[in-house]
Every structure is written in structure tokens, then in C-alpha cells.
Amino acid sequence: MIPCIESGIPGFDDLTKSESGMGGIPENSSTLVYGPAKTGKTIFSNQFAYQGLLNDEPCLYIMTDQGIKQLETMMFDFQRPINKFIEDNTLYTINTTSEGKPQKNENIVFSYINNPTDIMVKVSYGIKYVNKNNPRFRSVLDSSTTLLTYNENMLIVRVLKAYLMRINEAGGTSIITYTEDSADKKVETILKTMVNNIVRLDGKELTVEAMNGIGKRSSPYQITDEGLVI
Amino acid sequence: MKKTHIPKLDDFLGGGIPGGSSILFCAVPGVECEAFGYQIINGIIEDGDKGFIFTNVSEPINIVYEFSKYGWNLEQFLEEEKVFFVDGCSNFIGVPSMGKYSIDEFSQIEGVVLKAIDDIPDGIGVINNLSTLLDYLDDDKIIEIISKWNKRAKEKNTILVYIFTKWDYDPKIIENIKDSVDSVVSLTSIEERVIIGQGFMVTSASWTTPSKNLVLFFVLQPGGVKIYIPKILVTGPYNAGKTSFVKSISKKSVSVERMAMEKFPTTIAMDIGHVDHKGFVADVFGTPGQERFDLMLDVLAKEAVGAFILVDSTEPQTFARAKEMINKTQSEAIPKIIVANKQDLPGALSPEQIRETMKIDKSIPIIPTVVNENNGVEEALDVLLNLLYGD
Fold first, then answer.
1. Has residue B174 been placed in a domain?
2. Using one digit for the tens of pLDDT, what is the confidence trace for B149-185?
3. For chain B, what is the domain count?
4. Contact yes or no for B29 and A127 at CB 8 A
5. What is the mean pLDDT of residues B244-255?
6. Is A124 helix (H, G, I), strand (E, B) or coil?
7. DSSP readout, B111-137?
8. Do B242 and B376 belong to one domain?
């Protein structure tokens, strides 16, 4: 039996129920959430992160296309206030947008979109930070598309590989988002081979294309005031 | 010879870096390496030489900001024209470039850096970052470019510092890059689930036979690269032989102990020793084994990078306590080995039997020893250091 953690997406844990009756996201696995632009990938990731925080699982959140203020606003809009988790140090964010530097919080750190070396250093610190209080943690990278846009694709593939490995070794459960067709098909294929689970959002249907222990499943979804609902 | 201004590194390099030489900082992903380049150029400019920073990792303005966080005033050096940027970043992300030179396509990099080298004879250039160049250019091309840069730097007596992150590349290309520079400093990590410590080691230098010591460091803002002496923990149940073990691995040691039941000494606070073994230095802290001293364990265990868990092989009833102490000292999260002591006594369990009884994972080595006779002690030390630093 593969232990799962709550996804935070209403209906997702039922959709992914295996024979053992467990559903959700397999613990200590990596998931690629992809699909066309504006289909709810970030919302999916946010709900995943928030659910973890509610369950006392700290979160390492790497943001490449929004800043911490935008994240706070977006979470708040979907009735998921995160300021509490920033205050109690269970949410650790790495921001590559230049919004609002410098920050006094030690759990809000900055990096640069062109500098994977530095991002990875911050990831290491971040893991150590969130891992301190709970070996079980979640990690979100939203989105790999921005990294791919601003850097050579092969470099980012290597970076993501190092990133996923590190989160996995540390015992975390990770999500990477990717906007379909934003990079070569080849890169997309490599991304898919690097992760354990693949979830596709097309605006109407959520499809679990791959997940340990279950076959391909899909279901319609909607984005409501309370976020993504299946 | 120019000083690197990195503590210990100058000693290992025989005094510093000779003019015209190239040095590569080769880092495992997640280990800090940019600070090395920045600290060297900052120090050398403070000493009165000139320099440039080639960047393809962030805009010059951000690098100025990073310097300020370290407490170094790059802005002033820029104003005084002691340093300039070769901006290989801004044009690619669509912001105005800032720098004496800027690059808008990759074919220009080779020539522009050559010009920059010409501009600062006897100076220093920092190339940040080589790995970000690597995937844009052919493997052969990158080696050719590095060779050209190094050749020109040699003619101009300029030092070149390369920053390189060892992502998942073909080992052959990494070897070729290492071979094309005069000196390589490897930056590695000590990890068990998370990175516990970072270390640097000079792996080659053409001008001297470097001492291949691994030095642990951390990076402070402000402050830059600082070294620290790591702490190794010796823990285990009462009377397992921890104090003797600390004494036998240390050149010098002190124990805070007193006579238990007026018969034999027992540790009531801690044992402190200092290991100096095959170029590795560490402070060793032994914890007391009795439960009434448990409140000290946390303090002693703080920031330890590795642990020896001592057990008395003839006393399986104490193994549960040993596991409890692994827990209490948070040693689950650091590299550790079990030292199975008192192997010479009748009834001693073998390492395999101990593994089975204690249900210890195969990844944790169990070393049979007779600490009193110094048997297996050096092996235990070697095995732990190998776990910490690899080969």
C-alpha cells in the first residue's frame, strides 16, 4: 500500500482512490501538474500547499512567476489565508521575482531567475529550514515554465533533476507546474519521465495520466470561489 | 602571488594564487560557491588591483546588492573604475544592461571576455557562471574558449576565477573542464536527508602540491566565507566505553567525570577531544550515558555533523537505550556508525547479531572494536569520515 497525503483539492482524493481505499498524492513522490495556460495549475499547487500547512506539514514554495504578495492575495481570494504560516515559519518561500526586496522575514528569501546555482543553494537552506520541525513536508515549484523561458532548456532539466532528487531524499512530496507547449516536446517528455505522477488540467477535465498504484483516471473540474473542485 | 582572502585556502594553495593562473570552484548543486568568487575579487581589489565580473546569472545591479549583503562596497569600486561588469544577463531578460561590456548573443562571449582580460593586466576576472554557459555551447567549444581565456590571462598576468555548479553533466566534460584550469577547489556537502555542512578542498594546483584537507565552511551575510571546526558526537548507553573512545581517537582530551560508587569513574558532564586525522580536524564531544543527564544531550548534540554510537556488545539489554540515545541526540538525521565495543569479552555479540537485535538499517555501518586495546578505533574513524566526505 502506498501511503498518500491529502491533496487539498475537493474530489481529488476520491478520484485517486486505489483498491486499498486510500487516495490523494502518494507521500514522498513528485508530481508534474501541466496543461495549457490559465487552467488552474497554480491554484492546484496552492491548495496542495495549503492543505499541508493545515496538517502541520511545512511547505517550501519556489515562486518564479509571482511574488509573495501576489501569493498571499491569491490564497486569500480563495479563502486560504497564509499570513499565519508565514508568521509561524512553516511556509518558506523562494522568490525569483524582484518584488519587494529586502524582506525581514528569514523564511522569505530571494533569488534570481537566471541563477539556478543560487536557487539551488536557497532550496538546500529551505529544506533544512522546513525539515527542522517536521521531516514530512511539501514542496511546490511554480512554475518550471518561467525557468525554461529564461534559461537554456537542458540546464533547467538538470536543475529540476537535482531539485527533485533533493526533495525526495529529504522525505518531501513535491509538485512542479509546467505550461503545455511552452518548451520543446522533447523537454516536455523528459519532464514527464522525471516525476512519479502526472496530472493534466485542460480547463474542463482533470486527468491523472500517471500515478503509482492506479490507472489513468479523469474527471471534470471547476474553479469556484473556493478554488479548484472536482 | 595574490591572496584569495578565503580563510585557510591560501595556506592550502601555498600562499595564494600566482598571477596569470586560473582557478575553478566546482560545487555540488546546493552548495554555496558564488561567495568564493566574490570574496576573492573583493579582497584583491581592496589590495589595489583591478578586476571584472562576467555574469550570466543575474543583472549587475543584483550583484552589487549581493555584495552589499556581504558587507562589501562594490558600488564604490565601480565608481572608482577599479572593477567593471561584463553583462551577459540583462539583454537576455530584456532589461537595460549595465556594464562596460554587454553581450546580446552567445557568439560574442569569447571575444568580449578576451577584451575584458586585456583591460586589467595583473588583475582578476570572475566568471559567474560556467555551468550556465555550458548548455548553450558545444562541449568542445567551451573547452576551447576556456583555453583561450586562460592563455590570454597568462599573457596579461591576470587571475581568472571560474564558478561552476556540477549539475548532472557527462563526467567526461567535467574532467575536461577541470583539466583546462590550473587549480580546482571542490565544494561538497555533508548530507543525510538534508545538507548538514558544506566543505571545500583543493583538489589540484599546478604551482604547488596542495594540502588536501577538507575544511567545513559556512557563508555569512555580512562576512562572507567563514570556516568552522565541525563537531562529532560520541553517544551510547552507560558504561559502553565512550570516554575511552574519545580518548583513543583524540590527540588531546578532557573528561568531566567522577567516581561512581567510589569504584570507577563515570562521565557526568561530557568528554571533549580534538581529532586530527588524515587532514581532517574535528572537535569530539562525548555525552554521558545515564538517563539523569539526558537534559544535556540536546545541547551537546547541537550542530554535530556526525555521530559514533557506542554499544557494549556483551550487554544487549542496553541496546534499546542506545536507540533511545540516537533519538535523543537527533542522530537519525546525521551520518553515524555503531561502534560495537568490548568484542574481546566472552558473550560479545557479533556486528551481525547486533544489527539484528537492534534492527539497524544496512546503511549504518557497525564496526567491531576493543576500545581499550585501540582495536578497530582507527577503522571506525575512517568509516565515519568516509561517510561524511565520501572518497
1. yes
2. 999 999 999 999 999 999 999 999 999 999 999 999 9
3. 2
4. no
5. 81
6. helix
7. HHHHHHHHHSTT-EEEEE-HHHHHTTS
8. yes
Q: Chain B residue closest to A96 (CA)?
A: B58
Closest Cα in chain A, distance from residue B163 (Å): 10
Q: Is the pLDDT of residue A93 over 60?
A: yes
Evaluate whether residue A22 is within a structural domain. no
- Residue A98: closest C-alpha in chain B: B62
Residue A75 distance to chain B (closest CA, Å) = 28
Which secondary-structure segment (H or E) carries B277? strand B264-277
Residue B263 sits in a domain whose CATH number is 3.40.50.300
Say yes or no: ipTM exceeds 0.85: yes
Amino acid identity of B160?
L
Q: Which chain A residues are closer than 8 Å to B130 by Cβ?
A: none
Contact A118 B29 (CB under 8 A): no
CATH number at A118 reads: 3.40.50.300
Among B228, B260, B277, the domain-final residue is B228
φ/ψ of B92, rounded to 5, equals -80, -25
Tell which residue, B4, B15, B11, has the closest CA to residue B124. Answer: B4
Taking only the tens place, the pLDDT of each residue in B31-47 is: 999 999 999 999 999 99
Using a CB-CB cut-off of 8 Å, the residues of chain A touching B163 are 117
Residue of B nearest to A171 (CA): B193
Q: Name the residue range of residue B273's domain.
A: 231-389
Question: Are B193 and B305 in a shared domain?
Answer: no
Residue A35 has pLDDT above 90, yes or no: yes
Query: In this structure, are B181 and B269 located in the same domain?
Result: no
